[in-house]
Amino acid sequence: MKSFEVNFDGLVGPTHNYGGLSFGNVASQSNSQQASSPKEAALQGLEKMKALMDMGFVQGVLAPQERPDVAALRSLGFSGTDAQVIERAAKDAMPLLVASCSASSMWVANAATVSPSADTADGRVHFTAANLNCKFHRSIEHPTTSRVLGAMFADQQHFAHHAALPAVAQFGDEGAANHTRFCRDYGEAGVEFFVYGRSAFDSRYPAPQKYPARQTHEASQAVARLHGLSEEGVVFAQQNPSVIDQGVFHNDVIAVGNGELLFHHEDAFLNTESMLDELRRKLAARGAKFESISVPRDQVTVDDAVRSYMFNSQLLSRADGSMLLIVPEECRANPRVWSYLQGLTSAGGPIREVKVFDLKQSMQNGGGPACLRLRVALNETELAAVNPGVIMSAPLYDTLTGWVNKHYRDALRESDLADPQLLLECRTALDELTQILKLGSVYPFQIN
Question: What H or E segment, with its residue span, contains residue 342?
Fold first, then answer.
């Protein structure tokens, strides 16, 4: 039976703005308070989805969240009508209003961790929504994320859904941004690679000093247990604390993996050689030939990697066995990064081609190609059980671009977030979107 790695890209929401909310994310903080363009952001994301579909990859779409999150503001003591809640938050606590308006759910690499059926004890595809409790504006996402994923992958014969881990610092979970999977074939048993920034309970593990380590070892272990993964099918690795302090807030800012290949910076991990040996050994037991490409710091610095998002890329397998690397335009603008990538593709290794996409609106807020997609490995039977409304096609692309042009603003500034009309615009758009994607009622305003 044929198997696929399907990329479900996050559709950028109507309140996309540069709030500078993510401490530790250099791009997010450095572009704070600039005017954004929600329409341009959504169209840039859709263009990438369409391009990958046209290249023959199975591509899906994951819906954004309702924003501003009035319920979150009510839980913090603001009362009255929805318009009054927004007005009072804007007057008394603008940072909370900005957080409640964040369109950060566009980065669906943080939506959940996904384990394919070939790896799990019960032979189903498992999803655990990420609690994202390190940042308030992201910690409010997982209830809607769970409903949306449940509407997309509804068949309980094939799919299992787990609630987010406890929303405490000891179980900080950032989803697939700190998780990848290696395998010979997507339909065969593989090795799942969990990367964490710190241990919550063991002080012997080093930790960053400047920026927070968002993923804990304990959270990664809990997800592996929930998904029924075997000891032979997992490897846990720690991020290098020094690169977290340089702006590598998730592992997917410094490494990317696919198939039998890990592409990473020399300074990405602690105990790199022993970790690579464990991956090599466990994959060999599954008939896979693991390979790693380590990018030397004297050719590409950590700062280069953070500013270009060279590793926050999509590594895709082609039918001929070669790999394609999808990178943002910022890689071409960085001479050292671009020189390295040109040498990489001409060296005869597994990565044979680099394609560049303009994702400036997302990049300025700290998210590149890898942030925008959630990878789900599915066999033919499982793919047929996915809600067909979320699988990209030429007609769906046309419908969604028309939907964006109809509902999204050309520009959005912080002062615009206080406009109660923005909430009405968002709800109108999302109500129509649930019909387009055949999701049913997944948003609070549709349920309450």
Answer: helix 335-345
Residue 354 has pLDDT above 70, yes or no: yes
Long-range contacts of 397-405 (CB under 8 A, 24+ apart): 397/46, 397/49, 397/50, 397/53, 399/436, 400/11, 400/46, 400/61, 400/436, 401/43, 401/46, 403/429, 403/432, 403/433, 403/436, 404/39, 404/42, 404/43, 404/46, 405/39, 405/43
Are 321 and 291 a contacting pair, CB within 8 Å? Answer: no
Token pair 């910022």 in the structure block, residue: 330
Residue 382 annotated among the catalytic residues of the structure:
no
Which residue ranges make up each domain of the chain? Answer: 3-67+102-447
240 dihedral zone (left: phi>0; alpha: psi -120 to 50; beta):
beta
Q: What phi and psi values does residue 287 have, to the nearest 5 degrees?
A: 80, 15
Choosing from 161, 371, 407, 426, the catalytic residue is 371
Selected catalytic residue, list 5, 174, 218, 330: 174
pTM: 0.95
Percentage of the chain beyond pLDDT 90 is 90
Count of beta carbons in the 10 Å neighbourhood of residue 249: 31
Catalytic residue among 126, 158, 227, 250: 250
pLDDT at 13 over 60: yes
Per-residue tokens: 200: 């919550």
For 118-153, what is each residue's pLDDT tens digit? Answer: 999 999 999 999 999 999 999 999 999 999 999 999
What is the Rg, in whole angstroms, of the alpha carbon atoms belonging to the chain? 21
Number of C-beta neighbours around residue 278 at 10 A? 18
Decide the pairing of beta strands 351-357 and 261-265.
unpaired
Going by C-beta distance under 8 Å and a sequence separation of 6 or more, which residues neighbour residue 284? Answer: 290
Active site residue 137: no
Q: How far is CA 342 from CA 331, 338, 354, in A?
A: 11, 6, 8
Q: What is the pLDDT of residue 23?
A: 44
The total of other beta-carbon atoms located within 10 Å of residue 409's CB is 17
Through-space distance between the first and last CA atoms of the chain, rounded to whole angstroms: 42
Beta strands in 69-220 (DSSP E): 112-115, 125-129, 159-162, 179-182, 191-196
250 in catalytic set: yes
Look at residue 35 in the predicted model and tell me its pLDDT: 78
Tell me which architecture the domain covering 3-67+102-447 has in CATH.
5-stranded Propeller (3.75)
pLDDT band at 21 (very low <50, low <70, confident <90, very high): low
The C-alpha angle with vertex 371 and arms to 383 and 292, in degrees rounded to 5, equals 85
Q: What is the structure's pLDDT at 76? A: 97
